[in-house]
């Protein structure tokens, strides 16, 4: 079974995660057969490993991790691949894949332009 | 004259800003009469004040600052309003406005869902 992890940075202020919770809700409304979990790099729970463990317990065998980041800096280029490799070692039966950061996607950028156009 | 500032967090790795540069290019292609500048909270230039100064020199009188952040945590709830107020004091002739973070916009979130759907 396929599953999705939406992976964000995390922050001290709990309200920071609200858009991530909204993303997970949207996903569940639109893809009720494909489980989703959030995961955070730091300062918020669950960790990537906890999210993989939870999806594994739900029967996932193929998990795609989408980095919900704009830019690809040190966190995504250095920290994230190490985390992902550690998870893959801990869950050898799960096929773990990833994608570019969402900020690399032209449609996401265009939605930001459209939002700015409405706002100005 | 109206103008736009796309305001991001900033990062140590210079490549982090690539999607922000792409956003500014998209804006210029689609709104050639409305100047745009990027600005960063930390670790990258220009600062918000530098961006306001640059747009003011280009003749802007009404500037909208769009926070290109997913979540609204301490940076947007505490640091950003202080920065914006300082800028307003330094440029009293400019009308400075702002918007919610782009992560509050449903179309931006849906674009992330669509990207995830294609990726899984």
Can you walk through the features of this model?
2 copies of one chain form a homodimer. With 120 residues, chain A is α/β, with parallel strands linked by helices. Chain A has a single domain, classed as Rossmann fold (3-Layer(aba) Sandwich). The first copy, chain A, contains 4 helices and 4 strands. The first copy, chain A, has helices at residues 18-30, 48-57, 74-90, 106-119, and strands spanning 2-8, 36-40, 62-67, 95-98. A 4-stranded parallel sheet of chain A has the order 2-1-3-4, with helices on both faces. In chain A, helix 1 (18-30) links the parallel strand 1 (2-8) and strand 2. The termini of chain A are far apart. Chains A and B meet through strand 1, helix 1, helix 3 and helix 4 of A and strand 1, helix 1, helix 3 and helix 4 of B.
Outline of this structure?
Two copies of one chain form a homodimer. Chain A is 45% helix and 18% strand. The first copy, chain A, is an alpha/beta fold and 120 residues long.
């Amino acid at each position: 079974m396929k599953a999705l992890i939406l992976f964000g940075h995390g922050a001290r202020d709990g309200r920071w995660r609200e858009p991530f919770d909204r993303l997970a809700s949207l996903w569940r409304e639109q893809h009720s057969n494909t489980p989703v979990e959030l995961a955070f790099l730091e300062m918020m729970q669950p960790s990537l490993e906890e999210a993989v463990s939870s999806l594994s317990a739900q029967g996932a065998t193929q998990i795609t991790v989408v980095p919900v980041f704009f830019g690809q800096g040190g966190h995504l280029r250095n920290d994230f691949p190490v985390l992902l490799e550690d998870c893959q070692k801990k869950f050898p039966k799960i096929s773990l894949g990833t994608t570019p950061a969402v900020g690399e996607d032209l449609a996401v950028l265009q939605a930001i332009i459209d939002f700015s156009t409405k706002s100005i």
